[in-house]
Amino acid sequence: MSAEQIVPDSEHRGLVARLPRRVRDFALLARFDRPIGWWLLFWPCVWGVWLAGAGWQLVLLAWLLLGAIAMRGAGCVYNDIVDADLDRQVARTAARPVASGRISARAAWAWLLALSLVGLVVLVQLRWQAEVVALASLALVAAYPFMKRITWWPQAWLGLVFTWGAPVGWFALRDDGLEVLAALYAGSIFWCMGYDTIYAVQDREDDALVGVRSSALRLGENVGRGVIAFYALALALWALAFWLLRHDWLALLALVPAAFQLLWQGMTLDPADGANALARFRSNRFAGALVAAACFVVGNAGLT
Fold first, then answer.
1. Are residues 97 and 28 in contact, defined by beta-carbon separation less than 8 angstroms?
2. CA geometry: angle at 215 spanning 212 and 221, to 5°?
3. Which ranges constitute the DSSP H helices of 269-304?
4. What is the distance between the alpha carbons of residues 224 and 264, in angstroms, rounded to a whole number?
5. What is the pLDDT of residues 264-274, one digit of tens each?
6. Domain interval for residue 107
7. Which of 19, 129, 160, 268 could join 24 in a cystine, given CB atoms 3.0 to 4.6 angstroms apart?
8. At CA 108, angle to CA 41 and CA 101, rounded to 5?
């Protein structure tokens, strides 16, 4: 695969490279070459399901995984349509299919519709309470691409959008314990702010030139401390969720592995090294798994 056909942070290049060129461009547009995105969208779904305390729920999680892949792809397509002019001015994104002209805006909208239909199939598998919650996210999703133009904290808005799976997963099984869900969701937002600030470190120079705002720019030399602060708030709110559910100090120990992983990210982040930042960002797939394990232990211990 040539350099102009793939963005620098793509994964699984060999798999994507085997696709016919036209199909490959649509796969790149939906970020199928970068599974980290749907992992980050999927893990909050798992947290909501497992903390709800109804066991493994593997069929439900399979549907939510499919929904995460489809809707993350749809969100990326929408983002690229809206941001095409900006993407052309940023080295890391200039080769994206819409920005480079390999896929027309009309074809991109058609691809967006197809992915959304997959999301609709997943939606109707859920009980009506979860359907309503899932649909409520659409306004947040539609507004997100414009946040980087009007606020220094688009990562906060992304947190609202990208961790919406937590309430969807929770309402797929129950509609009580809203104080537990609120703490879980709030913690998830700060987690997203942390990892997306790390991701934004890669674009700071280009963003400053084209006038795009981000938490990485706003924090300046304090990016590392800012990330640690976001993660600390996430852990504190998750601990609150566990406490509200269990009222047992031992339950909080379930978060210790995730706490160490997040601390490692913040302590070893080198804002001047794009590869370092990308590796820490991608490691959140493992951080998400550790939080998921904690939610399963606490949610299914039978002491609600």
1. yes
2. 110
3. 274-282, 284-299
4. 11
5. 999 999 988 88
6. 3-299
7. 19
8. 115
